[in-house]
Each structure stands twice: as C-alpha cells, then as structure tokens.
Amino acid sequence: MEHGRVNPSHKLQDQGMNGLGTVYYNMLEPDLVAHAVKRDEGTLGQGGTFLVSTGKYTGRSPKDKHVVKTANVADKIWWENNAEMSPEGFDALHADMLEHMKGRDFFVQDLYGGADPVLRLDVRVVSELAWHNLFIRHLLRRPGRDELDSFVPEFTIINMPSFKADPAKHGCVSDTVIALNFEKKLILIGGTEYAGENKKSVFTLLNYLLPEKGVMPMHCSANHATGNPVDTAIFFGLSGTGKTTLSADPDRTLIGDDEHGWSDRGTFNFEGGCYAKTISLSPKAEPEIYATTKKFGTVIENMVFDPETKELDFEDDSLTPNMRCAYPLEYISNASDTALGGHPKNIIMLTCDAFGVLPPISRLTPAQAMYHFLSGFTSKMAGTERGVTEPSPVFSTCFGAPFMPMRPEVYGNLLRDKIAKHGATCWLVNTGWTGGAFGTGSRMPIAATRALLTAALDGSLSESTFRKDPNFGFDVPVTVEGVDAKLLDPRSTWADKKAYDAQAEKLVDMFAENFEQYVAHIDDDVKAVAIG
C-alpha cells in the first residue's frame, strides 16, 4: 500500500525495495507529525512541536562512517580521514538492509540539496521513522508539489535505526553504520536514531561532487545586508562555535546556518532549514531561534521537558549537551526567500578556544586566512560526538574535517582562489573562553562578539587602530566602540600573566605541530605566516 505524491515511474520498488509495508511519499508536515505521534515515536509539544529522544546516540558517530572504495573514487578520497569499506562489504550490507525492510512501513521525501537550481542535488531520503522524514524535510530544500511528478533522485539515502550491522560481514566497526557509495549513488544508515547523520551525509556528498564544478562547499553560515545581497558574509565554524546564533542577526538577511556553496555566481545555501543547539538558549539573546521551539512541526531533539505542561528545560543537559531543534528556514523572520547571496565581502572564521588564549577578533591577510582555514583550530564541544563530555582542543581542517571526502588542499586552494578573485576581508573570531582556560575563565560574552562582528561587517572595524599579536602575528583591534578594551587583549584578562604566557606558548606549539602535514602542499606566502 502507498500514499502520497511521487513520480509514478520511480517508486521504491523501481529501486529494488520490495515487499514493504505501507509507503508514505512526500507527506507534508501535519501528516508527518500525526504519524510520528500515532507511532509513539515521541511526544507532541507546545505549539505542535515534536519532542523526541534519540536514545543511545545523541550525536554523530564519526568512527562508524565509511566510504566504499570503488575504482572511480580510490585515488580521489582522503583515506587518512575516511574509513574505507569494500564494495563486497557494502553489497552484503545493502542486501541485508533490503531484507530487513520487508514488511515495514517507510516514509519517503524527495528533496533538493542546494538552492542554486543549476547546481542542486536531487536526493531521495527513505526513513523508517516518520520524525526523521519530518526532520530532513525541514533541513533540505522542498520541491514544488508539481515537481514531484517527474522527480528522479541522483542519490538515495536509506535510514533504518532498527537495523544492526555485522562488522565481520559488512566490514564496519560496530553495529552502527553510515556507508557512502559514490558509484552506486547510495547511502545506507543503520543503528542510530540521531537525525544529524541524515543531513551530514548529504553535506559529504556535496563536498565530493561540487569542487569538480569549481564550487567551494563550505561548513559555514551566511547572511547579507538587508536589501543588498552583494554584501554577503560567511561564518566558518564547527558545531558549538556560534554559526547559527551569530548568523541569525536581526539587522541582516539570513541565507542559512550551516552549509553553503560558493560558485561563480555567488553564495547559495545547501539547506532549507536550521538545526540549532538549544542548551542555554535565551529569548533575550536569541529570540528568533527561541521562538521556533514553540512553532508547529519544529523537531525538539533530546531536551528534558515537563511531562504535564511540556515546558522545555533549556538548562538540563542530562540527556546530552547536544540538544537541538530543527525547523524550516522560513521560521526565521529575516530569512532569505531565495537562500542566495553574492560573493562574500567578509569571511569570518569562528573558533571556540578552550585555552583562553586567542583574542575575540583578529584581522587576517589572505595568506593567514589560508593558514587558519587549513588549521581549523577550535574546541570540540560536549555532546556533538559520542564520548565528548567537555570541550577538547582539536584541529579540524577546513572547519569541517569529518565531512571532507577529499584532501584539504582541494578546498583550501578553491578558497584561496576565490578570496583572491573577489577580494574578501577575512577575520578570525574567538567565541571560546576569556580570563582563563575552560574551567577557570568564562565564555566570551555574546554581546561583545555581536558588537565586534557588526563593526567588521559595516566596515568601521577596518578603520580602527590595530596591534600585532606577538604569538600569532595577526592584527588585533586596540579599541572598539561598545566593547570592553580589556577583552581585546586576552593576556590582560588573566589574573596570572605568566600562566597566560605558558598557555599561549603551548597553543603555538600545537599549531606548529599540526601544520607540518600541509607544508609540502602550500605556497611560500602561506609558509611565511605559519605559526611557531
């Protein structure tokens, strides 16, 4: 039995998925919420939100992610960063998943990855859980209903949390698996209910496919000046660095909060929604995002709530610090209708420095921008991956190593060339700790970060007086209106200045050691600005 709207010549049985129960094609949000509630997948919350717990896995499982080593990708994939799976192991996995699907109900969404109609990827997502289908309908871009009649997916994702992989048979490392087969244009996900695996699988696909078209895929948020898409800014950063919060500026138009492309025509969002962290979410500091937690269809993931009133607790991280909400982009009042922008005028690289060493904002030369993009220094925030319980310093090249199938120089060179061609100004912004390291200092005040970014984006910061940072060599503003001058000099915020110096020296050494792997692949101008 089947329900919904779909291309009649491209149903699941046409893709080899046979013997299924009821298949629900391209259900809209009210029906998906109704099915999720009826199937007891979660709880209906205030305003018609859907409250759900993902159980064992409350973050991504990067060690369970595999790329199938087929002949067409063997010499293109960055294998030091991507675990391989044999074609034979994948075929066995696929066959076992098809068998496991028999007799079960499934929900299907046909969606676009990418707002640019020329460059977008047509993706079909087959979900065992109705709320997973609701989630991915929010996060990817939704075709018009008439477009579904002729929709043919380029890639298909099958996600079955109830399926347990067999490491010995399938060539994976546990009973959880995320397997990408570029040759067969198929992604298989099993053994995890964490919905973020769906969206990051599509991001990984685009990170592989777009560079060959001259498009820079970016783990970043983006916005532009109201009424002026030419004044676009992008914000690189890993989870927990502030991409979503800082790009949701009420005085600018939001393009998107997490994944974008930079083509010859400008910037475009890969997604149609946002996936925001909700821990300590404040109606005062982040009113637009906070408001989505009471809007119909928003997926509230791994949050503690009052069983009677369904009131959310934004401070209780007993399930995970990685609690989130997923909602369509139009729930943000100043979101772009097209999700398109111009070539970036400002490039912001966000880092969450758990050492408490970096200043809140620094201006980078193009060579320094290349250096910090390849370095990708931040702190892995609690909960975003399994086993991470407190911030830990990490170098994640391109601010997105977990999602990069190819070597970082591929992306670094694309970024360098586009900065050179379009003349973007680059900034390094620290949203981490001040006054000491994690455990001693405090988190950088978001009001100060917003003030600094406003000054950077409106051009006034470039007119400030700058000093040269003695440890890292970049330019740091001495004073900025509305910001405590003491914050701009991290050493002055530490009670123990010698302890700061020791911490700074330690971080410089870490940068130098990490960057050794890129020295053979970079130009002399980047070598000249290397730290340490």
Question: How would you describe this structure to a colleague?
Answer:
The chain is α/β, with parallel strands linked by helices. The protein folds into three domains: 2-41 and 57-213, Phosphoenolpyruvate Carboxykinase, domain 1; 274-331, Phosphoenolpyruvate Carboxykinase, domain 2; 343-529, Phosphoenolpyruvate Carboxykinase, domain 3, CATH 3.90.228. The strands form six sheets. A nine-stranded mixed β-sheet has the order 1-2-7-8-9-11-10-5-6. Strands 12, 13, 14, 15, 16, 20, 21, 22 and 25 form a nine-stranded mixed β-sheet that branches. A five-stranded mixed β-sheet has the order 3-4-18-19-17, covered by helices on one side. Strand 28 and strand 29 form a beta hairpin. Helix 1 (29-38) runs antiparallel to helix 3 and helix 8 (366-375) packs antiparallel against helix 9. The radius of gyration is 23 Å and the shape is globular. The mean pLDDT is 95.
Oligomer: single chain
CATH H-level superfamily title of the largest domain:
Phosphoenolpyruvate Carboxykinase, domain 1
Main beta sheet: strand number and arrangement? 9 strands, mixed
- The CATH topology name of the largest domain reads Phosphoenolpyruvate Carboxykinase, domain 1
Q: Total helix count?
A: 13
Provide the structure class.
alpha/beta
CATH architecture of the largest domain: 3-Layer(aba) Sandwich
Which secondary structure elements does this structure contain, and how are they paired or packed?
Layout: E1 2-4, E2 23-25, H1 29-38, E3 43-44, E4 50-52, E5 65-68, E6 83-85, H2 87-101, E7 106-113, E8 121-127, H3 130-139, E9 155-160, H4 167-170, E10 177-181, E11 186-190, H5 196-209, E12 216-225, E13 228-236, H6 243-247, E14 252-256, E15 259-263, E16 266-269, E17 273-277, H7 287-292, E18 299-301, E19 324-328, E20 340-341, E21 344-351, E22 361-364, H8 366-375, E23 377-380, E24 392-395, H9 408-422, E25 425-430, E26 433-434, E27 442-443, H10 446-457, E28 466-468, E29 475-477, H11 490-493, H12 497-515, H13 524-528
Parallel strand pairs: 1-2, 2-7, 4-18, 5-6, 5-10, 8-9, 9-11, 13-21, 21-25
Antiparallel strand pairs: 3-4, 7-8, 10-11, 12-13, 12-14, 12-15, 15-16, 16-20, 17-19, 18-19, 22-25, 23-24, 26-27, 28-29
